[in-house]
């Protein structure tokens, strides 16, 4: 099991996704249409049904939700995993 093998905590959300990429690949063959990935501190901060419905209605490939920060935090990086 990823994470367990190393006996270490994951190094962030992207590390979890990287280690569990096979789960996402398997989802393609199990009729899973959408996957919602959340950071731990976001679990209870919004109604995700509205978020997912907007995603479906607009037929986009990816949707990112974030909160406004100070101007010095405008840097965002999307990783290709």
UniProtKB/TrEMBL annotation:
Keyword Mitochondrion belongs to the record: no
Catalytic activity: alpha-D-glucose 1-phosphate + ATP + H(+) = ADP-alpha-D-glucose + diphosphate
InterPro entries (alphabetical): ADP-Glc_PPase (IPR011831), NTP_transferase_dom (IPR005835), Nucleotide-diphossugar_trans (IPR029044)
Biological process (GO), any one: starch biosynthetic process
Nucleotidyl transferase domain: residues covered: 11-72
A Pfam family recorded for this sequence: NTP_transferase
Enzyme class, broadest EC rank: transferase
Pathway(s) this gene product operates in, as recorded in its UniProt entry: Glycan biosynthesis; starch biosynthesis
EC annotation from Swiss-Prot or TrEMBL: 2.7.7.27
Transmembrane segments: none
Molecular function via GO: glucose-1-phosphate adenylyltransferase activity; nucleotide binding
Alphabetical keyword list: Allosteric enzyme, Nucleotide-binding, Nucleotidyltransferase, Starch biosynthesis, Transferase
PANTHER family linked to this entry: GLUCOSE-1-PHOSPHATE ADENYLYLTRANSFERASE LARGE SUBUNIT 1, CHLOROPLASTIC-RELATED, GLUCOSE-1-PHOSPHATE ADENYLYLTRANSFERASE-RELATED
Assigned protein family: Belongs to the bacterial/plant glucose-1-phosphate adenylyltransferase family.
Function noted in UniProt: This protein plays a role in synthesis of starch. It catalyzes the synthesis of the activated glycosyl donor, ADP-glucose from Glc-1-P and ATP.
Name of this protein: glucose-1-phosphate adenylyltransferase
Species of origin: Vigna unguiculata (Cowpea)
Organism placement in taxonomy: Eukaryota, Viridiplantae, Streptophyta, Embryophyta, Tracheophyta
């Amino acid at each position: 099991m990823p994470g367990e093998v190393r006996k270490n905590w994951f190094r962030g959300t992207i590390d979890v996704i990287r280690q569990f990429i096979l789960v996402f690949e398997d989802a393609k063959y199990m009729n899973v249409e959408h996957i919602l990935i959340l950071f731990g501190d976001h679990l209870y901060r919004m109604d995700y049904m509205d978020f997912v419905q907007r995603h479906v209605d607009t037929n986009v490939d990816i949707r990112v939700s974030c909160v406004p920060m100070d101007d010095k935090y405008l840097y965002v990086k999307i990783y290709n995993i």
